[in-house]
Design goal:
This is Ribbon-helix-helix protein CopG domain-containing protein. The chain has 63 residues and is mostly helical. It has helices spanning 23-33, 41-57. Helix 1 packs across helix 2 (41-57). The mean pLDDT is 82.
Length: 63
């Protein structure tokens, strides 16, 4: 069961992709997204993807 409320408002041009994820990974996305106030599971996945990509672009500091 999807714990998110569905938002019918579309923003901007988008492309649809299909990704198979393990149930455990979906549960982790939900555990992060619901408390974070994400409007949908798709929004949570988009935000996590953006955070990961932004993190990859930051230079790493060596100690």
């Amino acid at each position: 069961m999807n714990p998110y409320t569905q938002n019918a408002v579309e923003r901007g041009a988008r492309s649809r992709i299909v990704v198979d994820l393990a149930d455990e990974l979906i549960a982790e996305v939900d555990a992060w997204g619901v408390p974070a106030g994400m409007r949908s599971r798709a929004d949570a996945i988009r935000n996590l993807l953006r955070k990961g990509l932004d993190g990859e672009q930051q230079p790493t500091t060596q100690k």
